[in-house]
Structure formats: C-alpha cells, structure tokens
Amino acid sequence: MNQKEQKPKKQQPWNNFAWLANLARKGEKVLIHFREATDDVCYLECRLMNADNWTIQVTDNKEKELIIFKHAIRAIEKIKVK
Question: Which of 50, 51, 62, 78 could form a disulfide with 20 if both were Cys (CB 3.0 to 4.6 A apart)?
C-alpha cells in the first residue's frame, strides 16, 4: 500500500508560544476573538502581559487584569499602531 506522507498541521500563529511570549514581552495591544455558541461578535481589545501553555494574562483598557484560558479563544490579532 502506498500511503501519502502526512505533513504536520501548521500551528496557528496566535497559538504559538514564542509569538505570544514576544508580544507579552513588548506589551503589545491585541484583539482577542472568543469562541461562542452564537453568531454574535465577541472580542476584547487588551494589552498582553503574559502567556503560558494554557492561559493568557491581559489587562483591559480600564487596567483590570484578566486571565483567559486558551480553549476559549478563537483567534488573536495584533493591533497595528498607525
């Protein structure tokens, strides 16, 4: 039997620990899109402070610290400063 070699799935950049750690080190602003059961738009604009394998620590615009589990996140975008 000939089986095709399967390439490993490329990890999404927002879930890459090195990418998140670099953003946290710089204190970059990000836009976090959450997973939801409805079609409503659910996102948070915040500053990334810390990241590990399971959670992300952020501060929102009111300087409140939040800890978010990665399984609740659909995507993270870096906010481009003009």
Answer: 51
Q: Which residues pair with 33 in a beta bridge?
A: 43, 75
pLDDT digits (tens, 9 = 90+) for 24-33: 888 889 998 8
Three-class DSSP category at 50: strand
- Phi, psi (5° rounding) for residue 25? -60, -40
Query: Are the C-beta atoms of 20 and 30 separated by less than 8 Å?
Result: no
Q: Tell the burial category of 18 from Cβ atoms under 10 Å away from its Cβ (0-12, 13-18, 19+).
A: exposed
Strands laid side by side in the 29-34 sheet: 65-69, 55-59, 43-51, 29-34, 73-78
Tokens of 52: 């590990």
The arithmetic mean of pLDDT across residues 34-59, rounded, is: 84
pLDDT band at 52 (very low <50, low <70, confident <90, very high): confident
